[in-house]
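quick one, 233 residues, struct below
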Amino acid sequence: MRILIVEDHPDILANLYGFLEPRGHQLDSARNGYGGLALASEHDYDVIVLDIMLPGLNGLELCQKLRTELGKATPVLMLTARDSLPDKVAGFDSGADDYLVKPFSLVELEVRLKALVRRSGAAHAVPATMRYGELSYDPDTQEASRAGVPIQLTKTGYTLLRCLLASAPRIVTRETLEQAVWGEDRPDSDALRTHIHALRQAIDKPFAIPMLQTIAGVGYKLVQTDPKRPPST
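---
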């Protein structure tokens, strides 16, 4: 199975890797909700293991975005320390397929993941076209446009656009974008700024009103094309 694990607790993450990888499963991981959303938007997984209590975007919000904004039908198993009925209902209402309370058995976790994949037929979701304001992007065809005008980007540019669209109009931190592009092997130089500049040239320069906005010291976000809005920095 190809599994995405979104979990911020390093010990739990290490235990999952230590148990699942030797059993032949391929794992990707993120330690915050926005990082998980970026990976889920960029790749297809057989199943997703999702912690509810995550920094930034929590597990419930992430699961909702997977279903409603990305059009992902990938099975989701939620991990949580909360075992009350309202908490479980909230998890299922957000789009989760199964629910496992911490602490849990790694053997049971694997059994549940296999069952979820069997029930789904191991089918990968068909990516939906992502839209925000005048911007649209189809991850399946790698076609992007603004106001109907085609936009040509590099592979990194498409990854950044995908992350920003998936979270719009929320801010996406620099760390989340760097993780989406380079994973844990992030460059020492300010490479992200260079790629953001190229993305801004592509989606904003040909138009009167900018959509890519810098949030100083935090990250970036997309904004609607409101003529009263001040230009991006």
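Residues 122-126, 227-233 have pLDDT under 50 and may be disordered.
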